[in-house]
Amino acid sequence: MPSRSYQRIRSDHASEVAEDYVEAIADAIAARGVCRATDLVKHFAVTHATVNNTIGRLQRDGLVTTEPYQPIELTAAGKRLATTSRKRHEVVESFLIRMGVSAATAATDSEGIEHHVSRETLDAMKRVLRDGWPSA
């Protein structure tokens, strides 16, 4: 029987792609007014088939709407997930920079860490960013 931490990691991995995609869709819409499958193909450097399969899962999960050859739209749930994911990403990236990690490395590392950070750890990161390091 898997441990609770293993189960949480599996759950994190399952939501990781959805979070990355809704965040990328929100970014494309903010930058260009629309998001098309080709935008995601370029962004993630994957095939159209991969994007289409993923968009199908996101549509099934109620995070996006789209029709063939039409732009991809975020649902209210998709927008909430994109916002939550973006905020978590920003906290992790800012925390890494506060620790002395270069901005380039923090940007790369935060892409993976953001999906696996617990609420407790994220709250601690926020406290450090807001109040500074706790005294020993």
From TrEMBL:
Entry-linked SMART domains: HTH_DTXR
One Gene Ontology MF term: DNA-binding transcription factor activity
Principal place of residence: cytoplasm
Keywords: Activator, Cytoplasm, DNA-binding, Manganese, Repressor, Transcription, Transcription regulation
GO cellular component, one term: cytoplasm
Keyword Iron belongs to the record: no
InterPro entries in the record: DtxR_MntR_Metal-Reg, Fe_dep_repressor, Fe_dep_repressor_sf, HTH_DTXR, Iron_dep_repressor, WH-like_DNA-bd_sf, WH_DNA-bd_sf
Compartments it resides in: Cytoplasm
Ranges for domain HTH dtxR-type: 14-75
UniProt KW Membrane keyword: no
Family affiliation: Belongs to the DtxR/MntR family.
Assembly notes: Homodimer.
Purpose of the protein: In the presence of manganese, represses expression of mntH and mntS. Up-regulates expression of mntP.
PANTHER family: IRON (METAL) DEPENDENT REPRESSOR, DTXR FAMILY (PTHR33238), TRANSCRIPTIONAL REGULATOR MNTR (PTHR33238:SF11)
Designated name of the protein: Transcriptional regulator MntR
Species annotation: Rhodopirellula sallentina SM41
